[in-house]
Amino acid sequence: MNIKQPSSHKNPEPESSVLYIVGTPIGNLSDLSSRAINILKNVSLIACEDTRQTKKIMNKFEFTNNLISFNKHNSLKKIPRIINDLNSGKSVALVSDAGMPSICDPGEDLVKNVRSNGSNIICIPGPCAALTALVSSGLPSSKFIFEGFLPKKKSQREKILFEISKNEKTTIIYESPHRLKKLLNELKIYCGGEREIQVSRELTKKFEEHIGNDINNVIKTFQEKEVIGELTIVIKGIKKESNLLINKSDLKKELNELIKAGLSLSAASKYLAKKHGIKKSETYNLN
Which of the four pLDDT bands, split at 50, 70 and 90, describes residue 244? Predict the structure, then answer.
């Protein structure tokens, strides 16, 4: 498939039959690029997660355009319409409520279908909460894993939490305000309270805040603080040497401490096996 390249001059007009993936601000509207503004002004149609949010951008930069809703509830019905528009020579811009489309939203399905249809796709880069929080954290950023929002189903959630506890790379998670405290307590169980972490909120806005140090400290902070705004959590990975075989004497000490705290031998063994990635029998037989 031949992909047409955009014109080289500054802020070219949108090309026909092209889907533009446009990154929008994650908080501060002034972060919208002039190239993004030009595309949003001049495409035939803007497909947006929430038309009310996109209208705020249009009002700020004083332009109007045709909008259609495109979100997780209606995306399957809207994809054929957008492909038909592209086939007829129209240009379409895809935007999410904030940040880069296709990251934790149904834009991924649209892009896949448009590419399969043979239409051209051009990305207009913009802000991303995950990367903004990562580079602000001071934690290792050369290699990282992005998990988005963790699943709500217990078995799936526990599986990912366990993987995070063993990751040598930095992990990035999105979370909503009313579920943050639950997530922090889960991370303490799986990763330990001393694991380095940063919680970022209100990114690019007036009250942007980065709360860090370790999981214990962050839990303590939010015991005395109201949780407001969408949150991005950055978790440091473990050192390679920490991922080697666990010292048996240390493991036995940890097992005995859990039993003294009130856990049964079976429950304590199961917990330590999951925490350290070993068989339950290896901990159970230490007693």
Answer: very low
**Tokens 């903004």 appear where?**
132
Q: Which two tokens stand for residue 140?
A: 């290792």
Kindly report the CATH number that applies to the domain delimited by 18-127: 3.40.1010.10
141 contacts 112 by C-beta, under 8 angstroms: no
Question: Do residues 48 and 20 lie in contact, with contact meaning Cβ atoms separated by under 8 Å?
Answer: no
**Residue 25's pLDDT band (boundaries 50, 70, 90)?**
very high
User: Where does the chain hold its CATH 3.40.1010.10 domain(s)?
Assistant: 18-127
Q: Do the Cβ atoms of 197 and 215 come closer than 8 Å?
A: yes
Task: Pinpoint the residues of the chain covered by CATH 3.30.950.10.
Answer: 130-241
Backbone angles phi, psi at 79, to 5 degrees: -55, -45
Q: Which two tokens stand for residue 156?
A: 């799936």
Rounded to the nearest 10 degrees, how much is the dihedral formed by the CA atoms of 179, 183, 184, 187? 180
243: its two tokens: 């991922």
- Among 3.40.140.10, 3.40.50.300, 3.30.950.10, 2.40.420.20, name the CATH number for the domain at 130-241: 3.30.950.10
What pLDDT is stored for residue 4 in this prediction? 52
Question: pLDDT tens-digit profile of 195-204?
Answer: 999 999 999 9
- Which of 51-65, 195-209, 240-254 shows the lowest per-residue confidence on average (mean pLDDT)? 240-254
pTM for this model (two decimals): 0.78
Closest CA to 200 of 235, 248, 149: 235
**What six digits make up the tokens of 208?**
């942007």
Query: What's the CA gap between 189 and 185, in Å, rounded?
Result: 6
Strands (E), 23-177: 45-48, 67-69, 92-95, 120-124, 144-149, 170-175
Full DSSP string of 83-103: HHHHHTT--EEEE-SSB-TTS
- The three-state secondary structure class of 190 is helix
